[in-house]
Amino acid sequence: MSLDKSDVEKIAHLARLAIDEADSPGYADNLSNILEMVEQMNAADTAGVTPMAHPLDAVQPLREDRVTEADQRERFQSQAPGVEDGLYLVPRVVE
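Now predict its structure.
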């Protein structure tokens, strides 16, 4: 996909970027190269490739999901300046 000066101007307008008119051809070339690389990557056959979460096949050690602390909600809310229906009341900051 090849971009021209008008395409660069539209993209710059959408991105709210002010670019010098003399730099437009350079931006067009760079963006065109990027889009060509993306097209090449999309053309690659990845049907048999297993997705990876980490390039080195590192495995994240997991721990057992269990409760380790007692529920202290009532104690904490008794010390709060304002509580209503189990929720903390805070000053309004957005008008």
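The longest strand covers residues 83-84.
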